[in-house]
Amino acid sequence: MLRVGLTGSIAVGKSYVTSVFAELGCHVLDADQTAREVVLPGSPGLASVAKTFSPEILNADGTLNRQRLGEIVFADETKRQKLNDLLHPFIIARQDEIMRAWEQEDPNGIGIIDAALMIESGGYRRFDKLIVVHCRPEVQLERLMLRSSLSRDEAQARIDSQMPQAEKQKYADYLIDTSDGFEITRQRTQEVHNDLLRLANKQT
Description:
The chain is α/β, with parallel strands linked by helices. It folds into 2 domains: 1-26 and 109-204, Rossmann fold (3-Layer(aba) Sandwich); 31-107, P-loop containing nucleotide triphosphate hydrolases (Rossmann fold), CATH 3.40.50. The protein contains 10 helices and 5 strands. The protein has a 5-stranded parallel beta sheet with strand order 2-3-1-4-5, sandwiched between helices.
């Protein structure tokens, strides 16, 4: 199986691109889904988080109180990094388990993991190819303001807290620009898919 990482900054259109890849027959996983799985009640991930950040981050039923944890980590960059470092190995292990299952089911297929911090975490190195989704900065800003009901300054602050789009693009094997709407994005995604298919078939 060809293992592909897909990443990009906030509000650049990753979800639409991954939906097109799924339509085209790729196996697709959103890393956010894995991140939720590894802190389910009774999981080693949740136990580690509670031990590190205090049992107060648990609800009475043993589930994670995301709001409480968010209040702790988003006010403190060191604590946020500690949380990422803590959960990252659990997330990577779960993703790898899912990719192994895909491979058994479809040895000649294409498996795509969509993760926002793939480059920052170094996780992109596990993949055969890396796709970076991007758009023009003014488009990104407008999308984020609309999507999250933010002021221009609030949206810009969120964008500025991430690795710049131009920096992410340097790591890419494939670039998909979503600036000009769904149809052009779909065409570019199909082009990339055709190339990935060719590579996947070469592996057999």
